[in-house]
């Protein structure tokens, strides 16, 4: 998992409350925030100026009340700059202020709009309900000369409802955008994780393949080196032949080891010098594998009971080859110079059975990781097969695998 994916896992929102928390006001405004705040401030001032002219023309209103109305309206417009930090508190304060000051009505609408945009519906219902509750009393004390009482209530109520609905629509749109953005980011991270997982599995698969190959080659080298150690009197041509096999096998083992390191370090695609189209073993290569073990001095009997071996799927042939290869490697470790009996039987629809039997004579002290048979079991189970191994009734060792072969 990459670092960005691990960081994002802790940043994923758990609920809508997280999205709401991100929408809450920040101390530092962005350029867009400044533009929006200036526009809302100018709209509030503009509505206040229009209302101030109406207040000046209102008959029967004492001059001190006109001046107080305009001063409260100016203070309310200035207080609009606090709407992002305390939207609910500012709205609750402006409700009584707008009740006594008509000039502050625009600021009260702006504050109510801010609550609808940045707070859940319960706060919108509270502040909007209080504003609507003051409308009848306000129109009763200061009736509109051009509208009847009912028409005034309907007009002001409609204005408050439009402001609240507009603000809630803006809020819903913002939450939708946030949700879509998070969904896209989550999908991107999940895709990255899937790719990383696929690469990891591919590296594991290639490393398992190369482990089997290396174990086989190195066990052959050990056998030939052991022959030179225990038979120093063998003919010179046999010594030369064994040394040539050791040199060739060591060269191939080093090449395989280089590929393993490249795969594990860079991945299957980025390992320099690795041919991705390298031929994979098939059922037809079993004979060459057995012959290679015979050249190393093993007595191997192969009973091939597969008629349609050329029609076997590539994956099936590769898995059978690796199972036989690991079985022969184990036989060299634990049953040196002992006869190894191997049977490969089956066909389309019936599956393919591989059985390897050999006595346990101790063999040569060839070190191993102890994970070869475990890896073979995993390989068989991944394709829907099964693999069993252990002591046979006659005291020898038996390895038996069954792999599916669809007709």
UniProtKB/TrEMBL annotation:
Residues 31-174 form the DUF7134 domain. GO terms for molecular function: ATP binding; phosphorelay sensor kinase activity; protein dimerization activity. The keyword ATP-binding applies. Residues 202-268 form the Signal transduction histidine kinase subgroup 3 dimerisation and phosphoacceptor domain. It catalyses: ATP + protein L-histidine = ADP + protein N-phospho-L-histidine. It comes from the Bacteria. Keywords: ATP-binding, Kinase, Membrane, Nucleotide-binding, Phosphoprotein, Transferase, Transmembrane, Transmembrane helix, Two-component regulatory system. It comes from Planomonospora venezuelensis. It is an enzyme of class 2 (transferase). The keyword Nucleus does not apply. One of its GO terms (cellular component) is membrane. SUPFAM superfamilies: ATPase domain of HSP90 chaperone/DNA topoisomerase II/histidine kinase. Its EC number is 2.7.13.3. Pfam families: DUF7134 (PF23539), HisKA_3 (PF07730). The chain crosses the membrane at residues 34-52, 89-117, 123-141, 153-172. The lineage of its organism: Bacteria, Bacillati, Actinomycetota, Actinomycetes, Streptosporangiales. This is histidine kinase.
